[in-house]
Design brief:
Layout (H helix, E strand, L loop, with lengths): L7 H10 L13 H11 L22 H26 L4 E8 L3 H6 L6 E8 L4 E6 L1 H11 L16 H21 L7 E8 L14 E10 L2 E10 H4 L8 H5 L7 H12 L5 E4 L7 H5 L17 E5 L2 E11 L2 E9 L10
Antiparallel strand pairs: 1-5, 2-3, 2-4, 3-6, 5-6, 7-8, 8-9, 9-10
Helix pairs in contact: 3-6
Length: 347
């Protein structure tokens, strides 16, 4: 029987002389089986410092520290834009930074209304394009105020803007862009320009739907009217300035004070002028009486003639004093220091 078994050399010689079509083909390996074999061949342990969590639905391309710096920058934008908008519409307006997070571009689009007023921006030296969306529920009341109306809230309008309305809306956008460029000066000198305006947000297409972006949402209120503005910063556009996003945060960390720095600060503070105000009295007057005031009329307050006055330094109450005169000039004599108001409790 041993003579009937072919040796290894004989089997290889026989296989080499067989035609190609007659050679046995290796059995097909199931893809799942191939994956299991690859996992089995991989190292069984992976160092934990090399493991990073990844959310495929919400990819993160900006780390937490950079996101915090972006939040600080856009809080400045909110404060500056609120002041500029109040002047433009001639009434108090509030702007609050609601959220700064990292959705995908498709998720950002799903949060917008249609129709809307979406501007595609160019922000050199950032690469690519940015997007600024102004919701119609707040934009139409702003335009009404600019045209002299809007004293009372009107019905909600949902339609694309007309040519004239687009020109007025561009003024509001320019106010926002000016504040955006100011806030970003510590990171980059942005040169902002509007490339086009879309009423359908899906027509913008500044990046692919699955790419990550940084979203900064602002809540805008004007009287009883409220709405949102949303700024979209693609992650690809931020890569060129990513290392600069840590600079403002590093600059905000105060080094340990030395004797020289304390002396220098003391010299600078000692030469600084501050505003000191003595508040004589305060009262409320009906508007009808205020309109009828004439020269010689008296306004009686609830402040007693011998009660101490409140002294404020840079609009902060600091002292109590008595009114008097010295060398022919009005003067006050400090009698007591006011306790500092308690700091608000942390939320």
């Amino acid at each position: 029987m041993a003579d009937d078994v072919l040796s290894q050399a004989e089997r290889e010689l026989l296989a080499s002389r067989m035609p190609a079509t007659a050679r046995p083909r290796p059995a097909a390996i199931d893809p799942h089986e191939r994956g299991r074999r690859a996992i089995a061949a991989a190292p069984t342990t992976i160092p934990m410092d090399r493991v990073e969590p990844h959310d495929f639905k919400r990819p993160r391309s900006v780390d937490d520290e950079q996101l915090r710096v972006l939040s600080m920058l856009h809080e400045r934008v909110a404060r500056g834009f609120a002041a500029a908008l109040s002047i433009a519409v001639r009434c108090p307006a509030r702007v609050k930074l609601a959220i700064v997070d990292q959705p995908t571009y498709a998720q950002w689009l799903r949060g917008l209304e249609n129709p809307t007023c979406l501007s595609v921006l160019r922000a050199a030296p950032l690469s690519g394009e940015l997007a600024l969306d102004v919701g119609l529920p707040i934009l139409f009341p702003i335009l009404d105020r600019m045209l002299g109306g809007g004293r009372e809230p009107g019905p909600t309008v949902r339609r694309p803007l007309t040519t004239i309305e687009l020109r007025l809306a561009s003024r509001i956008q320019q106010l926002f862009l000016v504040e955006l460029a100011k806030a970003w000066r510590d990171v980059a000198e942005l040169v902002l320009s509007v490339q086009r305006v879309e009423s359908d947000p899906h027509a913008a297409r500044i990046v692919l739907p699955g790419e990550g972006v940084v979203r900064a949402n602002f809540e805008v209120s004007m009287g009883t009217v409220r709405g949102t503005m949303s700024l979209c910063l693609p992650a690809t556009a931020l890569r060129s300035v990513a290392h600069h996003l840590l600079a403002p945060a590093q600059a905000g960390k105060c080094p340990a004070a030395t004797g020289e720095t304390v002396a220098q600060l003391s010299r600078q503070v000692s030469q600084t002028n501050v505003t000191v105000v003595a508040r004589l009295a305060a009262t409320r007057v009906p508007t009808a009486d205020l309109l009828e005031l004439r020269v010689g009329d008296l306004i009686v307050t609830h402040q007693g003639a011998h009660q101490p006055l409140e002294i404020s330094v840079e609009n902060t109450p600091k002292f109590l004093a008595r009114a008097g005169a010295l060398q022919g000039r009005k003067a006050v004599q400090i009698e007591a220091a006011l306790d500092a108001p308690p700091e608000p409790a942390a939320p």
